[in-house]
Amino acid sequence: MFIGREKELKNLNSLYDTDKFQFPVIYGRRRVGKTALINEFVKDKDTIYFTGIETNAKQNLENFSRSIFSYTTESTIAPVFSSFQEALEYVFTLAETKRLVLVIDEYPYIAKSYKAIASMLQVLIDKKKDTSKLFLILCGSSMSFMEEQVLGYKSPLYGRRTSQFKILPFEFFESRKYFSKFSDLDMATVYGLVGGTPQYLLQMDDNISLEYNIKNKLLNSTSYLFEEPNNLLQQEVREPAIYNAIISAVATGSTKLSEISSKVGEETSACSAYLKNLISLGIIKKETPFAEKTSKKTIYVIADNLFRFWYRFVPSNISIIQKDMTDLAYKNISEQLSSYMGAVFEEICKQYLWELNKQGKAAITFTDLGRWWGNDPKNRCETEVDIMGTDAAGSALFCECKWTNEKVDAGVLDTLAERSKLFRYANVCLYLFAKTGFTKGCIDKANELGNVNLVTFSEMMK
What we know:
Elements: H1 6-16, E1 24-27, H2 34-42, E2 47-51, H3 57-72, H4 84-94, E3 100-105, H5 107-113, H6 117-128, E4 134-140, H7 143-150, E5 163-166, H8 172-175, H9 184-194, H10 198-201, H11 210-218, H12 224-236, H13 240-251, H14 257-264, H15 268-280, E6 284-287, E7 299-302, H16 305-322, H17 326-334, H18 337-358, E8 368-376, E9 381-390, E10 395-402, H19 410-420, E11 427-434, H20 440-449, E12 452-456, H21 457-460
Parallel strand pairs: 1-4, 1-5, 2-3, 3-4, 10-11, 11-12
Antiparallel strand pairs: 6-7, 8-9, 9-10
């Protein structure tokens, strides 16, 4: 069953309905669902589907020829075109009188085995785009290659694409669609464990308990998800050991570039390049305090929840996991899950606010959201705000997110109100988000202040 991607499908079908030459580029990291999206799009369309493999040009040309002739003939014996030029010209000719989709999946493998293909496509597109009905899709998992060698300014294909789709993992409220039996609280934890990557979500099973999922899907050394962080690095980067060390450094609290460099024993310039690649893969993200641009305060955090979970818990429990002492590993981890979920809940709250904003239901129509941290001169200490947002009219919202089993009391609201006074905005709105709820004192205080929105997790799920 295909889930989600309604926006992408709608846009692809709109392009298809023009009946003119179109050249969308679809890219995103592995496991994110690019091929599933394309298969859903082409299921009722005339399509030649070719997937490149990591081999030489000769083998890829043979496979391409086979894909073309499996569309044009029922014969099991397919001739091989003499060149990619001849094969591509043949497909363009087929599309002169009828709408035809040509999918070239894992394009980077083909381009690396046959370096002239980009220039060849450029010439054919320039020559035939005004008379062709071809719907050409180039798809790839190598983020850097697709952005530089297909979409980049120096690429022969630059300016030829008619649209591009960067496929990202699902956000929390979309990822819920994969399950019907998990409770809302369990679903939040599942998202915290594996994020919104479709292939990771498919590994989880809502017919069994969350505890059983964690033990057997994440803490089992033979399971897919246990090996995935290492496997992904092996496939995506040339020096996985260094990347592993960098992710480990970030996961254990080295968040500034200088700290990461010192921890892994690499020059800051080298670490900066490695971090850039991890950011492009969606594994790491760079943060600065909201509304501040200074690089001196830049920190790096793990963006992908599976990587965040794995590097937070697995290395410290690896020996007992490998000795099949899963129950003990689970016990060690379960005691820390609530604190681990704090940052996950902040991200869920941020996604919720964006959805409110889209619907025109947020307290202000903000233009950006982010976390803020900095100095509190009154109390002479470092402090932070979980989520901040501002609009063009000088209004701001300040949010605190609490993933605890206790109800949030008035003291938390008082602290948030005080922190909002570190800034000068004409209008201030406060949000408190709580896993469980709020005490009567907190509710009374919110009514007294009048600019407060109290939101429980259960209300967010409606």
